């Protein structure tokens, strides 16, 4: 049974391992081995011995580790001896590598360390480079060096070669062995820290390992050439750092952090398979502590943990390969001397009591976890507990599970990730596939904050955008080309620049889920809960979206004025042409079709949340209709008469009202995917200004039009009309039966004791209407209608009735009726 392995080094240098299959600490078989640091990768572990040597431990496996050495025997033909190893001075060596530039006689090949042994003697490769067998003793022939070799000997073949190979096998799997010193290169000074990472960067996890080290003088070193067939690597290379480094940590991906001697932090950028040592260092501030700075850092796939001098634990938010520096520190409960990040970003720590702890509840959506758990595994068959000085988590297959005990909870971090498309609003304008992440955090005071990240790659360079949720001013669905599930994220700055962040989800449900999640975070960051207050500000957009802003109590105070572009507007389900409200919380609106609607008191915090009173939902079915217009434009010429062949300076043949935008029948769509056509395109004969019998209006140029054609009219247009309809579930109740063109609610002071107000309206026929008794607790309602011939009053008495199994008076949010 495969297992995960946790390595630990105690204060005496003894090495222990804890496996999920054993459930207890086991000391390494080499009782003389003493390590002071340990780090683990995928199926291998590294350590620094007390003798300052670097040690390697490769997990036992069924597939042996083999490395094939090769060298080439080269000969040239001469008329006396034939083919011989006596070559020209300009030729390659008699025994060389493939290129011929390096001499490689058979006796020059030595085992790199005692961990290897030969698996046989040298022998000639009987297969040529093309894969065909060679029947001539392994020789390949060519005209000269270098040239294309073949197995066939020709009349002009003047040189030949054959390959000798010998395999060696790694025999020290499952034990700690010394890494040989570099020859002839100068080895690094004694190392004080070492960290292994990078095994998840390639398509084949575990193929590459990046080993980093820090010398006692603060220099940074990199072990190059670590491959599955060369687990020890080839040599150490120094990586220049701006200041002396005290500790270093590499993640499974391309993250690398280092701690400076003064407690500040360094982040290495530009790490990739083509450039494993990266390109530059970036200085990152230490967590905000009074003094001392950071003493330890641990890096995972997309997390960074740190321990400060006062042994407080910190979590770095917003860290990933696109943003290796992250965006801020968050204090985590518990006091540790060091921490380590293992498989799936699981976290282990060594406490001040030298006890081992495991971070509970670490998941992709909660990367900071929920608390520390002491690991109570015993050593061998005794009851003695291991007191580790250094720990490292070996990546095998699965995580260890231990009895849980909640140690401390101070912070909770929530992270939601997904994939979308982002509209790049500069040339070339197009949709770009991006990764998105919403990171929400809660501090000890219960205050919540969140950051929305967008990750993308441009010219093979990883980049990111981020938006602080506290800066978001509005979230609205938008209609964008080649996307039916797009929405825009506005901030105060993007509003000024007219450059919102536009994203597109894969499905309508995904868009609704993200809008709901983002809107909920916006409300939580601003402390908005429950139904809109009576002082809420209501508005509608040009598309008919209903928005509400929750003001502060001192909105109108000169010292607390809030600019309009910084107000947060929350979308309320519904579709209206205009909306009116007063300080008693009475909200009325009119749809594009003239239907009057009254707000029914939704408790929604976003457009995706249902609203309930008791155990029943108070949402209603709302419908609205709109009329879409496009214009057909033509110009007269003496040959063909009126035609759609216009001048280059004219408007489009099919356009909007002003002619600046091309609008054809096939490219004109309803306002959003929620709308559907209910009629076909038809000529509008009721166009203001009059038309002829075919619907045309005429003018001398595209300026002022009239319905009758004259000799001076060289252009004409006609309007096409098509109706669409939307049906949605929203907290708006219809108030029939009179269509209205305008409406207003009687204003009153916020401190007013009025329980009923009047609503004035203007019908689509020009009648002025007044509706009395509109309130939240009214059971007696009065209606009045003003008519040119006089005034009539109507009284209406409503009795109690049963609603939700409770006797109470029905609240008349919209009054009894309009009377004409």
Automatic annotation (TrEMBL):
Q: In what residue span(s) does the Peroxin/Ferlin domain sit?
A: 64-125, 138-171, 623-684, 695-727
Per its record, what are the GO molecular function terms? lipid binding
Q: Keywords assigned by UniProt?
A: Autophagy, Cytoplasmic vesicle, Lipid-binding, Lysosome, Membrane, Repeat
Q: Which residues form the PH domain?
A: 414-525
One GO term describing the cellular component:
cytoplasmic vesicle
Q: Where in the cell is it found?
A: Cytoplasmic vesicle, Autophagosome membrane; Lysosome membrane
Task: Report the main location listed first in the record.
Answer: membrane
In Gene Ontology terms, what is a biological process of this protein? Answer: autophagy
Entry's family note: Belongs to the TECPR1 family.
Indicate what this protein is called per its UniProt record: Tectonin beta-propeller repeat-containing protein 1
Gene behind the chain: TECPR1
């Amino acid at each position: 049974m495969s297992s995960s392995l946790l390595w630990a080094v105690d204060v005496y240098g003894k090495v222990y391992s804890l496996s999920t299959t054993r459930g207890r600490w086991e000391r390494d078989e080499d009782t003389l081995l003493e390590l002071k640091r340990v780090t683990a990768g995928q199926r291998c572990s590294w350590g620094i011995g007390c003798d300052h040597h670097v040690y390697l431990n490769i997990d036992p496996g069924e597939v042996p580790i083999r490395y094939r050495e090769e060298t080439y025997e080269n000969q040239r033909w001469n008329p006396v001896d034939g083919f011989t190893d006596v070559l020209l001075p300009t030729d390659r060596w008699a025994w060389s590598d493939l290129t011929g530039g390096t001499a490689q006689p058979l006796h020059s090949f030595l085992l790199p360390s005692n961990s290897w042994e030969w698996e046989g003697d040298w022998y000639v490769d009987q297969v040529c480079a093309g894969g065909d067998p060679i029947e001539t003793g392994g020789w390949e022939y060519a005209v000269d060096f270098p040239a294309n070799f073949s197995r066939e000997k020709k009349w002009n073949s003047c040189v030949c070669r054959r390959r000798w190979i010998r395999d060696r096998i790694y025999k020290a799997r499952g034990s700690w062995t010394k890494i040989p010193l570099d020859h002839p290169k100068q080895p690094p000074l004694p190392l004080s820290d070492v960290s292994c990472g990078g095994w998840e960067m390639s398509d084949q996890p575990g193929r590459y390992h990046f080993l980093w080290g820090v010398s006692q003088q603060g220099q940074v070193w990199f072990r190059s050439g670590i491959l599955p067939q060369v687990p020890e690597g080839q040599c150490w290379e120094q990586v220049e750092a701006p200041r002396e480094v005290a500790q270093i940590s590499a993640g499974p991906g391309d993250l690398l952090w280092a701690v400076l001697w003064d407690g500040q932090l360094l982040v290495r950028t530009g790490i990739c398979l083509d450039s494993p040592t990266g390109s530059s260092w970036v200085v990152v501030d230490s967590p905000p502590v009074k003094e001392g700075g950071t003493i330890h850092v641990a890096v995972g796939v997309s997390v960074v943990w740190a321990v400060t001098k006062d042994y407080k634990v910190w979590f770095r938010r917003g860290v990933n390969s696109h943003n290796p520096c992250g965006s801020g520190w968050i204090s985590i409960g518990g006091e540790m001397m060091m921490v380590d990040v293992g498989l799936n970003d699981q976290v282990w720590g060594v406490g001040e009591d030298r006890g081992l702890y495991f971070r509970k509840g670490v998941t992709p959506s909660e990367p900071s976890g929920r608390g520390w758990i002491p690991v109570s595994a015993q050593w061998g068959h005794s009851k003695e507990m291991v007191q580790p000085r250094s720990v490292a988590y070996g990546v095998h297959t699965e995580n260890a599970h231990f009895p849980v005990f909640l140690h401390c909870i101070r912070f909770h971090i929530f992270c939601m990730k997904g994939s979308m498309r982002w509209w790049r609003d500069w040339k070339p304008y197009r949709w770009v596939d991006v990764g998105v992440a919403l990171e929400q955090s809660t501090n000890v005071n219960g205050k919540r904050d969140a950051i929305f990240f967008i990750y993308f790659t441009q010219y093979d360079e990883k980049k990111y955008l981020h938006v602080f949720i506290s800066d978001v001013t509005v979230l609205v669905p938008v209609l964008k080309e080649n996307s039916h599930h797009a929405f825009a994220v506005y901030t105060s700055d993007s509003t000024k620049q007219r450059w919102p962040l536009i994203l597109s989800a894969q499905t309508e449900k995904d868009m609704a889920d993200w809008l709901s999640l983002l809107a909920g975070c916006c409300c939580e960051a601003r402390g908005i809960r429950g139904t809109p207050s009576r002082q809420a500000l209501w508005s509608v957009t040009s598309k008919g979206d209903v928005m509400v802003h929750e003001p502060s109590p001192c909105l109108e105070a000169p010292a607390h004025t809030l600019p309009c572009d910084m107000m947060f507007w929350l979308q309320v389900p519904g579709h209206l042409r205009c909306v009116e409200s007063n300080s008693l919380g009475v909200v009325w609106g009119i749809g594009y079709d003239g239907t009057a609607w009254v707000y029914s008191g939704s408790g929604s915090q976003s457009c995706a949340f249902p609203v309930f009173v008791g155990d029943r939902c108070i949402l209603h079915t709302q419908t609205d209709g709109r009329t879409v217009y496009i214009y057909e434009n033509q110009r007269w010429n003496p040959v063909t008469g009126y035609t759609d062949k216009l001048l280059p300076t004219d408007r489009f043949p099919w356009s909007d009202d002003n002619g600046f935008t091309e609008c054809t029948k096939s490219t004109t769509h309803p306002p959003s995917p929620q709308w559907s056509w209910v009629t076909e395109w038809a000529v509008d004969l009721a166009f203001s200004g009059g038309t002829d019998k075919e619907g045309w209006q005429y003018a001398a140029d595209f300026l002022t039009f009239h319905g009758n054609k004259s000799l001076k009219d060289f252009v004409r247009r006609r309007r096409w009309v098509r109706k669409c309809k939307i049906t949605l579930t929203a907290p708006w109740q219809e108030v029939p039966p009179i269509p209205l063109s305008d409406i207003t609610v009687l204003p009153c002071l916020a401190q007013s004791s009025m329980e009923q107000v009047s609503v004035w309206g203007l019908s689509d026929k020009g009648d002025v209407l007044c509706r009395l008794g509109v309130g939240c607790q009214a059971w007696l309602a009065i209606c009045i209608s003003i008519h040119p011939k006089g005034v009539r009053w109507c009284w209406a008495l409503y009795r109690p009735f049963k609603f939700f199994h409770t006797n109470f008076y029905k609240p008349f949010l919209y009054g009894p009726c309009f009377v004409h």
